[in-house]
């Protein structure tokens, strides 16, 4: 299958600080990739760099044959990146339906399909963004990104801060989007095992560098890799010397 997204030797960060020293990555059509890593590993920075809201110091990012590196975030969204940031940037003073239609790009994803996937949003269609629960806001953020008819959906910690029952709902919806609909995507997630069932492959980042890449199945079958790279190691204190 053809490469849909490619990052070649990307160097990026915030202001003048480099967080990703040299990142290379390929995503194929229809492929879903999880980005794992401890706090501060650079997962959000990677997504932010792809969508164009960090400083990119070097390397290239291409969507198909189109070079994204010189485009701003809005142009990248129009080129095919559907971004669901950690802070779920929905319009709080617009209704659910206005949120969905305000920035929509015509295509296979339309209001009818969005409501089929998220019946809860149809029930709440006339409520304002700020009247929604956290889970409903997350659903709206995902549905809004789909209404851009993206080539790739980029999700930054889609289950963060949600009640367990809502997490299950969101995971079921993501499973449909990636496994049944065959959407390509990149999902940042703190809870590795939670997300590995939805994706094809995963990378593990540490200090902005890919330290492990594997299929989701390999990671699910071998606990030691996740253990080694993701658990927070306790400091072993040497016994105090006494005089
Ligand atoms: N806006 C910013 N300005 C400067 N440095 C930042 C900014 N955002 C993040 N960083 C730094 O970049 C590094 C990577 O952070 P990033 O948020 O990408 O990690 P992460 O893997 O997503 O972690 P988390 O799971 O905690 O969100 C950290 O050292 C962080 O302090």
Tell me what the structure shows.
It comes from Bradyrhizobium diversitatis. Belongs to the ABC transporter superfamily. The protein has 243 residues and is an alpha/beta fold. It has one domain: 3-Layer(aba) Sandwich (Rossmann fold). It is 35% helix and 28% strand. It contains ten helices and ten strands. The strands form two sheets. The protein has a six-stranded mixed sheet with strand order 6-7-8-3-9-10, sandwiched between helices. A hairpin with a 2-residue loop joins strand 4 and strand 5. The radius of gyration is 19 Å and the shape is globular. Adenosine-5'-triphosphate binds next to strand 2 and helix 1.
Task: Describe the secondary-structure layout.
Layout: E1 3-14, E2 17-28, E3 32-36, H1 43-51, E4 55-63, E5 66-67, H2 73-79, E6 81-84, H3 96-102, H4 111-117, H5 119-123, H6 134-146, E7 152-156, H7 164-180, E8 184-188, H8 192-196, E9 201-206, E10 209-215, H9 216-221, H10 223-230
Parallel strand pairs: 3-8, 3-9, 6-7, 7-8
Antiparallel strand pairs: 1-2, 1-4, 4-5, 9-10
The structure holds adenosine-5'-triphosphate.
CATH fold annotation? Rossmann fold
Radius of gyration: 19 Å
Shape: globular
Which strand order do you get reading across the main beta sheet?
A: 6-7-8-3-9-10
Highest-level CATH class = Alpha Beta
The biggest beta sheet reads: 6 strands, mixed
Distance between the termini: 68 Å
Assigned CATH superfamily: P-loop containing nucleotide triphosphate hydrolases
Average pLDDT level: 92
- How many strand units? 10
Low-pLDDT parts are none
User: Can you give the helix content as a percent range?
Assistant: 25-40%
Structural class: alpha/beta
